[in-house]
Amino acid sequence: MSAGRDVSSAPLEPAGPADRRTNRSLVVVSVGTDHHRFDRLVQWMDGWALGNRAVRVVVQRGSAEPTRSAESQPLVPHGELCALFAEATAVVVHGGPSTVMDARAAGRLPIVMPRDPDRGEHVDDHQLRFADHLSRHGLARVVRARDELLAAIGEAIADPSAFRVADDAQPPPGIVGFGRVLDELLGAATPLRNDWLAPGDVEVGR
Predict the structure, then answer these.
(1) Number of helices (H) and strands (E), helices first, in the chain?
(2) Where do the DSSP E strands lie in 46-110?
(3) What whole-number distance in Å separates Cα of residue 188 and Cα of residue 2?
(4) Which domains does the chain have, with CATH numbers?
(5) By CB neighbour count within 10 A (0-12 exposed, 13-18 middle, 19+ buried), where does 100 fall?
(6) How far apart are CA 96 and CA 106, in angstroms?
């Protein structure tokens, strides 16, 4: 894909045998469905994709600007996104509890970059607090800066086994409820705006 061409409108191809046969790494990114833009994460990943052409980068970008190098769509059907998670070498997500747990359910230790309300990325700091909770329990690799993000992706590509979750791994009691209560009570359940949804787009979980 050319860096000078908008590739964001192309349909996403599912991960499959071709990627596995060529041993091609796959990085999947999801920013959830909140209407606040998360351009910071999307732009960092798009820039990384430009310099790492051998790696397939797929981004569910929400309301952020379209990508130029990475494959992306505003929204991805939930089942397709979970299938991509299950095939990914690295999964990068925002700090939404549902998205984090979807990544873990797919057998991946997610790289979590929480949205920062001081940058206009969310209504409050509940993702920052949830990310701290995840980090304390070893449920995610939490990053907050570009160099931390890219270092974590590099580690996942170098040693994918370090970013795998055992099939029978269970989060500590209350961890899922903790995150979902934050989502519901602290303003995360913000209605989606329709002005950035294309016809046929399907909502993916927060």
Answers:
(1) 7, 6
(2) 56-60, 71-73, 90-93
(3) 36
(4) 21-187 (3.40.50.2000)
(5) buried
(6) 16
Residues 167-170: contacts with CB within 8 Å, 24+ apart? Answer: 167/107, 169/104
Tens of pLDDT, residues 89-147? 999 999 999 899 999 999 999 999 999 998 989 888 889 999 999 999 999 999 999 99
- C-alpha–C-alpha distance, residues 133 and 179, integer Å: 9
pLDDT at position 23: 80
Torsion sign across C-alpha atoms 142, 40, 185, 170: negative
What is the bridge-based pairing of β-strands 90-93 and 111-112?
parallel
Distance between CA atoms of residues 185 and 179, nearest Å = 10
Alpha-carbon distance of 118 to 82, in angstroms, equals 30
Q: Whole-angstrom Cα distance, residue 156 to residue 152?
A: 6
- Which amino acid does the sequence have at 81? L
Residues 130, 139 contacting (CB under 8 angstroms): no
Please name the amino acid found at residue 32. G
